Amino acid sequence: MSGSDWGLILALVLGILVVTPILAVATWVRLRKLERQVARLERAGLEARGEALAKVSAPPPARVAPVTPVVPVTPVVPAAPDAPAPDLETVIAGQWLNRIGLAAVAIGVSYFLKYAIDNDWIGPSGQVAIGLLLGVAIVAVSYAFVQRGHVYFGDGLMGLGGAILYLSLWAGGSYYHLFSSGVEFVAMAVVTASLLVMAFGRNSERVAVLGMVGGFMTPWLVSTGQDAQVALFSYLAVLNAALLPTARARDWRTLELPAFALTQLYFWMWYDRFYGADRLWSTAAFATLFFVEFAALQVARSLRTAKVREEELAVVLFNAGVLLLTLRVLLWPDHRTLLTAAALARSTRGMQMASVCLSLGGSTPAPRRQLNRLEVT
Fold it and tell me: Is 233 exposed, middle or buried (0-12, 13-18, 19+ CB in 10 A)?
């Protein structure tokens, strides 16, 4: 037997050794949960039966003529109990084993495809087609698991399907050159938009994070090493315009700071490699556009909640500082007068934004307007 055959056998054995314990532990955890549920139902049934017997055996109350009228009392509705925190068994079965199982499946599928490719069973077009069909199928199947209550597993499947789609499109465009880089770029953008739409519809922050990661990976995957400032920065602006309102609408806290950091990373990487004096005004315009996108989100959120979280405060400070640094790098020393005017305008605008975030009295007359403190959480 050849080395590839032994490798395939070893992969199958390892897969069995990994998957079998996972299934056994997951089954045991589910049985334990079912046993606890049955025990709770039995206790509740016994208590209800005892109360019913006590009511039947108790003598009827004696009739007493009312002396004073009864004052009606508004019934107090008890507060709904807090949802119980997930126990260790639920965390292990729902999260850890889910991720280990998905990783094992991904490794097994990748090894099988590599084996088939090495033996010329599947050509480049077939490989890309299989990857695209497999990615779409996995994303579609993930909905069935979510509807059955397996949210973690469904989100994991959707992330796996999205990763397969990105890799398949990259292989078809940049590796095998089956289609142009423009087609590859547009297709990846469609995948990112689809993941964000599905994340918003399902209210899944995990899927939104996967869409954000894929969206910011797209320019790197399709890069040809040439200067494409307008296309790159326009794409980043559109991506942020989709991510930031989604984060605000769903109150997701894990999108804004990474999106800001990755946007600045792309900006300064382009600057270090391609910037020239002839790109001064277009570069300054895009830097200002990025600043406005992240600043507008903070103003809108502060007007709605009157709170600023720690990561949001970090974005506010870094956003203003990065804009001033960018203008300093672009305008000094040839346009120092314009730099001074821009710094003064930025300072004035910052004070106006702080005033808007602090005052929530909008249409109330000035004497009756209350100035609320902005709470940092």
Answer: buried
- Nearest Cα neighbor of 263 from 230, 297, 286 is 286
Closest by CA position to 290, among listed 254, 240, 215, 328:
240
Q: How many residues does the chain have?
A: 377
Whole-angstrom Cα distance, residue 219 to residue 170? 11
Token pair, residue 204, equals 């899944």
- Where would I find the H helices in 251-309? 256-274, 280-305
* Closest listed residue to residue 159, CA positions, set 206, 196, 194, 113: 206
Query: SS3 of 309, please?
Result: coil
Where the chain has pLDDT below 70, the residues are 1-32, 50, 52-106, 108-117, 301-311, 346-377
The encoded tokens of residue 283 equal 């570069």
Coil/strand/helix, residue 94: helix
Answer for the pair 140, 198: CB distance below 8 angstroms, yes or no: no
Distance CA 155, CA 210 (A): 10
Q: Please compute Rg for the chain using Cα positions.
A: 30
Q: What's residue 308's pLDDT?
A: 64
Q: Quick check: helix, strand or coil at residue 299?
A: helix
How much is the pLDDT for 19? 53
Q: What's the confidence (pLDDT) of residue 371?
A: 39
Q: How far is CA 153 from CA 32, 104, 159, 252, in A?
A: 20, 14, 10, 20
Handedness of CA 171, 176, 177, 179 (dihedral sign): negative
Which residue in 89, 98, 105 sits closest to 153, CA to CA? Answer: 98
